[in-house]
Amino acid sequence: MELRQLHYFITVAKELHFGHAAERLGMTQPPLSQQIRALEEELGIRLFHRTNRRVELTEAGQALQQDVERLLTELDLAVSHARHIHQGQSGILRLGITVSAPFVEVFARSVLTFRQSHPHVQLSLHEHASQAQVEALLERRLDIGMLRPLNLPQDLEAIELLREPLVMAMPITHPMAQTPPDQAVPLARFAHEGFVAFPRGVGFALERQINELCRQAGFVRRIVQEARETTTQIALVAAGLGVAIIPALQQRIQVRTVTYRTIADEAAQSSIWMVYRRFQQNSLVRDFINLVRTELAREGKNDP
To answer: In this predicted structure, what is the pLDDT of residue 50?
Structure first.
């Protein structure tokens, strides 16, 4: 049985006239009649009563018509769905994000534009640490990651979305809080402080960078409290339990008894990267990457 035979059958069933059906199908009547007879023989079912005056569906033909019309409709929907996915008009785009990613304007604008231009695509956001995102990208559990800089495997490629200073979060009663807000403070001035930090395995990329900065400043951080969320870290700073080094974007978290100062050390900067697999990208991934490149170009930034 061939799909075209089913289309022929449905056309004849609707027209109940072989000549009219052949005209609709753009063919002559004899081949159409032959195809219907071949279908009946293969199924072992008589589908039509034929007389010189009229054509009628048999009872079996009526039942088959209903089922075939439903199947053809579902097939059309399946083909349409596949085409939409191929053309990037539907499907799922899985994005990994760090805590800071939603604050990055390029990311926020790109997500908004993508949702407007791809209304039938589901955006699935997953908050993971940077190293976990790299693993998920390699295992194809994520399509794109937004993460802090790491040494990337060869199969992954990155575009820098943002480079920002690191800042010190401290209680407003701290002596260094008396420096003017626009004046950066040397990291070495905090060598004897207790620090609030991420637990081991959380914020790995940022914590590794902070440890190296402190080493360059001549000391090793004394960590007195750990917290998984930046908001919790800042709350602990507000409670006077220590100071914390955080990315500048997190200054948007305002607590009355906490103040922020930019760290003066030259290397006290961090970035957010958009990371994706170098090869075998689908159309949705390519569309999102192109949107981000467009947004960066509008800001006058070039890919690294």
So the answer is: 87
